[in-house]
């Protein structure tokens, strides 16, 4: 499976494409950071991000898109810009019928390093090791985009199996409840007939 990982941001939006193989095998395909000028109009900045993401989707043909979920940030303006950039990415993916999954920073850190509290340097180091990179992706947004793709490749199969198991369990519970209701109704009918 090929995944486009996106670390959204207005000034710097990290993009990383990773192929997943059997087991936990991952291979880097491409990585870059889209930049927009801070003094440009918001709509123009979002259009720039959208255009870049569209080109990446056309060029690399991902099968899924993993986007970092906006998590609590002290700077509301930064959080809003990050959310807007993530929304543009999700829209571009939806237009192509691609599944989009949002992962929290702690999910990504835990998937890649084993600790949800890992720092940027630890995440970057593990991304380099897992993908066999000799040069550190720069800036950190690039490494984060690759980490998001890896996280998705490793977590999504488990999430899908869990959702399927929950759906099966709900169906079994529904059928059981219906059988109980039918048995209670039959017992009531037999009791009234006596």
TrEMBL record:
Enzyme class, UniProt record, top EC level: hydrolase
List of residues binding Mg(2+) 1: 7, 141
Biological processes annotated in GO: DNA recombination; DNA repair
Reactions performed catalytically: Endonucleolytic cleavage at a junction such as a reciprocal single-stranded crossover between two homologous DNA duplexes (Holliday junction)
Manner of cofactor binding, per the entry note: Binds 2 Mg(2+) ion per subunit.
Any single Pfam family the record assigns to this protein: RuvC
Catalytic residues identified in the record: 7, 68, 141
EC number(s) from the headed UniProt entry: 3.1.21.10
Subcellular location: Cytoplasm
A GO molecular function held by the record: magnesium ion binding
InterPro entries per the UniProt record, alphabetical: RNaseH-like_sf, RNaseH_sf, X-over_junc_endoDNase_Mg_BS, X-over_junc_endoDNase_RuvC
Summary of subunit composition and partner proteins: Homodimer which binds Holliday junction (HJ) DNA. The HJ becomes 2-fold symmetrical on binding to RuvC with unstacked arms; it has a different conformation from HJ DNA in complex with RuvA. In the full resolvosome a probable DNA-RuvA(4)-RuvB(12)-RuvC(2) complex forms which resolves the HJ.
HAMAP family: RuvC (MF_00034)
Protein name: Crossover junction endodeoxyribonuclease RuvC
Gene, per the UniProt record: ruvC
